[in-house]
Amino acid sequence: DIPAYIVMPENAPEVKKRAVEQYGGLVFECKPTLDAREAEAERIAKETGAVFIHPSNDPMVMLGQGTAALELLEDIDALDHIIAPVGGGGLLGGTALATAFFGGDCEAIGAEPLAVDDAYRSLKAGRILGNEKTDTIADGLRTVLGSYTFPVIQKHIRTIVRVSEAEIVQAMHLIWERMKIVVEPSSAVALAAVFKDPDRFKGKRVGIVISGGNVDLKKLPFA
Q1: Residue 32: per-residue pLDDT
Q2: HEC sequence for 122-169
Q3: Among residues 140, 212, 31, which one has the least CA distance to residue 7?
Protein backbone atom coordinates (compact mmCIF):
# COMPACT_ATOMS: atom_id res chain seq x y z
CA ASP A 1 0.00 0.00 0.00
CA ILE A 2 2.89 2.38 -0.61
CA PRO A 3 2.26 4.73 -3.57
CA ALA A 4 4.84 4.74 -6.37
CA TYR A 5 5.25 7.93 -8.39
CA ILE A 6 6.88 7.20 -11.76
CA VAL A 7 8.32 10.05 -13.84
CA MET A 8 8.35 9.17 -17.54
CA PRO A 9 9.24 11.25 -20.63
CA GLU A 10 6.21 12.14 -22.71
CA ASN A 11 7.63 10.28 -25.71
CA ALA A 12 8.03 7.00 -23.81
CA PRO A 13 6.26 4.07 -25.50
CA GLU A 14 2.60 3.87 -24.56
CA VAL A 15 3.03 0.20 -23.69
CA LYS A 16 5.43 1.19 -20.90
CA LYS A 17 3.08 3.83 -19.54
CA ARG A 18 0.11 1.45 -19.56
CA ALA A 19 2.11 -1.29 -17.86
CA VAL A 20 3.19 1.05 -15.05
CA GLU A 21 -0.40 2.13 -14.50
CA GLN A 22 -1.70 -1.44 -14.54
CA TYR A 23 0.85 -2.39 -11.90
CA GLY A 24 -0.49 0.42 -9.72
CA GLY A 25 2.11 3.10 -10.40
CA LEU A 26 1.17 6.76 -10.76
CA VAL A 27 2.64 8.10 -14.01
CA PHE A 28 3.83 11.71 -14.28
CA GLU A 29 4.92 12.75 -17.76
CA CYS A 30 7.60 15.32 -18.49
CA LYS A 31 9.61 16.69 -21.37
CA PRO A 32 12.13 14.16 -22.77
CA THR A 33 15.18 15.78 -21.20
CA LEU A 34 17.29 14.84 -18.20
CA ASP A 35 16.73 18.24 -16.57
CA ALA A 36 12.95 17.91 -16.92
CA ARG A 37 12.90 14.44 -15.40
CA GLU A 38 15.05 15.47 -12.46
CA ALA A 39 12.95 18.59 -11.82
CA GLU A 40 9.67 16.66 -11.88
CA ALA A 41 11.05 13.95 -9.60
CA GLU A 42 12.32 16.57 -7.16
CA ARG A 43 8.92 18.30 -7.18
CA ILE A 44 7.08 15.07 -6.42
CA ALA A 45 9.49 14.15 -3.63
CA LYS A 46 9.02 17.53 -1.96
CA GLU A 47 5.24 17.53 -2.27
CA THR A 48 4.63 13.93 -1.24
CA GLY A 49 7.58 13.05 0.99
CA ALA A 50 8.40 10.13 -1.30
CA VAL A 51 11.95 8.77 -1.43
CA PHE A 52 13.64 9.28 -4.80
CA ILE A 53 15.10 6.17 -6.43
CA HIS A 54 17.15 6.72 -9.58
CA PRO A 55 16.64 4.06 -12.29
CA SER A 56 20.38 3.55 -12.76
CA ASN A 57 22.62 5.99 -10.87
CA ASP A 58 22.17 4.43 -7.45
CA PRO A 59 24.64 1.98 -5.82
CA MET A 60 21.94 -0.44 -4.68
CA VAL A 61 20.15 -0.33 -8.04
CA MET A 62 23.43 -1.02 -9.81
CA LEU A 63 24.20 -3.96 -7.51
CA GLY A 64 20.70 -5.31 -7.97
CA GLN A 65 20.98 -5.16 -11.74
CA GLY A 66 24.36 -6.89 -11.51
CA THR A 67 22.75 -10.01 -10.05
CA ALA A 68 21.66 -11.00 -13.58
CA ALA A 69 25.31 -11.39 -14.57
CA LEU A 70 26.10 -13.04 -11.24
CA GLU A 71 23.46 -15.72 -11.83
CA LEU A 72 24.75 -16.21 -15.37
CA LEU A 73 28.27 -16.76 -14.05
CA GLU A 74 26.96 -19.22 -11.48
CA ASP A 75 25.05 -21.20 -14.12
CA ILE A 76 27.60 -21.21 -16.97
CA ASP A 77 31.26 -22.08 -16.50
CA ALA A 78 34.25 -20.51 -18.23
CA LEU A 79 32.62 -17.58 -20.00
CA ASP A 80 35.03 -15.39 -21.95
CA HIS A 81 32.74 -12.38 -22.23
CA ILE A 82 29.46 -11.05 -20.86
CA ILE A 83 27.76 -8.37 -22.92
CA ALA A 84 25.19 -5.93 -21.56
CA PRO A 85 23.56 -2.84 -23.06
CA VAL A 86 24.39 0.56 -21.62
CA GLY A 87 22.23 3.65 -21.15
CA GLY A 88 22.41 5.08 -17.65
CA GLY A 89 25.02 2.47 -16.79
CA GLY A 90 23.27 0.63 -13.97
CA LEU A 91 23.05 -2.71 -15.78
CA LEU A 92 26.51 -2.49 -17.36
CA GLY A 93 28.04 -1.23 -14.11
CA GLY A 94 26.48 -4.08 -12.15
CA THR A 95 27.53 -6.56 -14.82
CA ALA A 96 31.07 -5.21 -14.70
CA LEU A 97 31.24 -5.61 -10.91
CA ALA A 98 29.83 -9.14 -10.97
CA THR A 99 32.28 -10.11 -13.70
CA ALA A 100 35.27 -8.47 -12.01
CA PHE A 101 34.69 -10.13 -8.65
CA PHE A 102 33.18 -13.46 -9.63
CA GLY A 103 34.01 -14.01 -13.31
CA GLY A 104 37.65 -15.05 -13.20
CA ASP A 105 39.11 -14.22 -16.62
CA CYS A 106 35.70 -13.24 -18.04
CA GLU A 107 35.50 -9.72 -19.48
CA ALA A 108 32.40 -7.53 -19.40
CA ILE A 109 31.68 -5.58 -22.59
CA GLY A 110 29.16 -2.82 -23.22
CA ALA A 111 26.81 -2.47 -26.19
CA GLU A 112 25.38 0.89 -27.21
CA PRO A 113 23.39 2.45 -30.06
CA LEU A 114 25.61 4.51 -32.33
CA ALA A 115 22.95 7.23 -32.31
CA VAL A 116 23.40 7.77 -28.55
CA ASP A 117 27.01 6.73 -27.95
CA ASP A 118 27.65 8.92 -24.92
CA ALA A 119 29.03 6.02 -22.85
CA TYR A 120 31.53 5.14 -25.58
CA ARG A 121 32.63 8.76 -25.88
CA SER A 122 32.70 9.27 -22.10
CA LEU A 123 35.00 6.29 -21.71
CA LYS A 124 37.34 7.75 -24.35
CA ALA A 125 37.24 11.26 -22.89
CA GLY A 126 37.57 10.25 -19.24
CA ARG A 127 34.52 12.29 -18.24
CA ILE A 128 30.74 12.07 -18.56
CA LEU A 129 29.46 13.36 -21.90
CA GLY A 130 25.89 13.76 -23.11
CA ASN A 131 24.04 13.44 -26.41
CA GLU A 132 22.81 16.29 -28.57
CA LYS A 133 20.02 14.05 -29.93
CA THR A 134 18.30 10.91 -28.68
CA ASP A 135 16.97 9.58 -31.98
CA THR A 136 17.25 5.84 -31.42
CA ILE A 137 14.76 3.01 -31.47
CA ALA A 138 16.39 1.79 -28.24
CA ASP A 139 14.41 4.17 -26.03
CA GLY A 140 15.62 2.53 -22.84
CA LEU A 141 19.19 3.61 -23.60
CA ARG A 142 18.63 7.30 -24.27
CA THR A 143 19.82 8.41 -20.85
CA VAL A 144 23.43 9.11 -19.84
CA LEU A 145 25.92 7.80 -17.30
CA GLY A 146 25.88 9.10 -13.74
CA SER A 147 28.19 9.87 -10.85
CA TYR A 148 27.99 6.32 -9.47
CA THR A 149 27.85 4.31 -12.68
CA PHE A 150 30.58 6.09 -14.66
CA PRO A 151 33.47 5.42 -12.22
CA VAL A 152 32.58 1.71 -12.12
CA ILE A 153 32.41 1.48 -15.91
CA GLN A 154 35.58 3.53 -16.27
CA LYS A 155 37.44 1.11 -13.99
CA HIS A 156 36.12 -2.21 -15.25
CA ILE A 157 35.01 -1.75 -18.88
CA ARG A 158 37.54 -1.54 -21.70
CA THR A 159 35.25 -2.00 -24.69
CA ILE A 160 31.86 -0.64 -25.75
CA VAL A 161 30.61 -1.84 -29.13
CA ARG A 162 28.39 0.62 -31.00
CA VAL A 163 25.62 -0.62 -33.30
CA SER A 164 23.41 1.02 -35.92
CA GLU A 165 19.62 1.23 -35.84
CA ALA A 166 19.35 -1.35 -38.62
CA GLU A 167 21.61 -3.74 -36.70
CA ILE A 168 19.45 -3.36 -33.59
CA VAL A 169 16.30 -4.23 -35.53
CA GLN A 170 18.02 -7.20 -37.17
CA ALA A 171 19.09 -8.60 -33.80
CA MET A 172 15.66 -8.01 -32.31
CA HIS A 173 14.04 -9.83 -35.24
CA LEU A 174 16.35 -12.83 -34.79
CA ILE A 175 15.58 -13.12 -31.07
CA TRP A 176 11.84 -12.99 -31.74
CA GLU A 177 11.99 -15.42 -34.65
CA ARG A 178 14.51 -17.99 -33.41
CA MET A 179 14.38 -17.79 -29.62
CA LYS A 180 10.67 -16.92 -29.30
CA ILE A 181 11.48 -14.29 -26.68
CA VAL A 182 9.74 -10.90 -26.57
CA VAL A 183 12.50 -8.31 -26.25
CA GLU A 184 12.52 -4.57 -26.82
CA PRO A 185 15.10 -2.87 -29.06
CA SER A 186 17.22 -1.77 -26.09
CA SER A 187 17.68 -5.40 -25.10
CA ALA A 188 18.57 -6.50 -28.65
CA VAL A 189 21.51 -4.08 -28.68
CA ALA A 190 23.64 -6.61 -26.78
CA LEU A 191 23.17 -9.34 -29.40
CA ALA A 192 23.68 -6.81 -32.18
CA ALA A 193 27.13 -6.12 -30.72
CA VAL A 194 28.16 -9.74 -31.31
CA PHE A 195 27.15 -9.53 -34.97
CA LYS A 196 28.89 -6.17 -35.26
CA ASP A 197 32.28 -7.51 -34.20
CA PRO A 198 32.33 -11.24 -35.07
CA ASP A 199 36.12 -11.56 -35.08
CA ARG A 200 36.28 -10.48 -31.43
CA PHE A 201 33.84 -13.18 -30.34
CA LYS A 202 34.69 -16.02 -32.75
CA GLY A 203 35.39 -19.23 -30.85
CA LYS A 204 34.55 -17.59 -27.50
CA ARG A 205 31.98 -18.47 -24.87
CA VAL A 206 29.81 -15.37 -24.75
CA GLY A 207 27.03 -14.58 -22.30
CA ILE A 208 24.45 -11.95 -23.28
CA VAL A 209 22.26 -10.17 -20.75
CA ILE A 210 18.80 -9.91 -22.32
CA SER A 211 16.73 -7.49 -20.27
CA GLY A 212 13.58 -5.63 -21.25
CA GLY A 213 10.46 -6.66 -23.11
CA ASN A 214 8.39 -3.49 -23.31
CA VAL A 215 7.19 -3.61 -26.91
CA ASP A 216 4.21 -2.02 -28.62
CA LEU A 217 2.97 -4.96 -30.69
CA LYS A 218 1.27 -2.55 -33.09
CA LYS A 219 4.59 -0.89 -33.92
CA LEU A 220 7.06 -3.72 -34.42
CA PRO A 221 10.05 -2.33 -36.36
CA PHE A 222 10.37 -5.46 -38.50
CA ALA A 223 6.66 -5.96 -39.24
Answers
A1: 87
A2: HHHHCCCCCCCCCCCCCHHHCCCCCCCHHHHHHHHCCCEEEECHHHHH
A3: 31
> Could you list the residue range(s) of the whole structural domain that residue 16 is in?
5-48
* Separation CA 62–CA 97 (nearest Å): 9
Burial of 147 (C-beta count, 10 Å sphere; 0-12/13-18/19+): exposed
Residue 180 in any domain: the answer is yes
Angle (nearest 5°) at CA 68 between 172 and 24: 80
CA distance 66 to 94: 4
CATH of the domain at 84: 3.40.50.1100
Query: How do residues 152-183 score in pLDDT, each as one tens digit?
Result: 999 999 999 999 999 999 999 999 999 999 99
Alpha carbon distance 151, 216 (integer Å): 34
Please report whether residue 53 resides in a domain.
no
